[in-house]
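Ticket opened by: R.M.
Priority: normal
Category: complex prediction / small molecule

The reporter submitted a protein together with adenosine monophosphate and asked that the result be attached to this ticket for the collaborator who will pick it up next week. Submitted input follows.
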Amino acid sequence: MRIILLGPPGAGKGTQAKEIVARYSIPHISTGDLLREQVASGSELGNRVKAILDSGELVTDEIVMEMVDDRISRADCAKGFLLDGVPRTVKQAEILASMMDRRNVALSAVVQISVPDEVLLDRIRIRGIANAGTRTDDTAEVAAKRLEVYRTQTAPVASYYKDQGVLKVVNGVGSVNEVSERIFTSVGA
Ligand code: AMP
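Result attached by the on-call engineer:
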């Protein structure tokens, strides 16, 4: 199973990603987590990345896709993986497509979790309180910026996959179980 999970910040991608990887026994690849690891390592790249994360803007396609290429080359990804938080731009989707071609593998599903804006902002606010001190990008101001970046740069990724006929849109309002059942049904396995 090679699955991409799409959805705006606050849609519950992280929560649902855990359910999906448990169900299909595949590794969870979150570019947000990989970037935060870079920041925590205190490397020179990490310092540059921190400023971008804190602003709510996107890290460059090259940095992110190089990390993804490295990660999916590892042995645990041979039978599949879940991508969470990537692709975030159409350019990233195109780079991913060429990485998959090079490996002679195909995507199994692209799932978009859909949640209305008011619910998203509420959820991000709650997460900001819960994560105070650990995630410096969960303030209301940065949350609004991340939502705007999603609309302008990431929403076209859903259209890209829709045009290819592989996009499944799942209603993200409901309990964790309700939403994951919808996802499993849409993936069809
Ligand atoms: P996330 O944990 O997925 O919400 O990502 C947190 C932050 O990491 C984002 O606001 C971006 O600054 C950065 N980031 C994560 N994934 C990507 C990506 N695929 N492309 C560019 N920036 C990313």
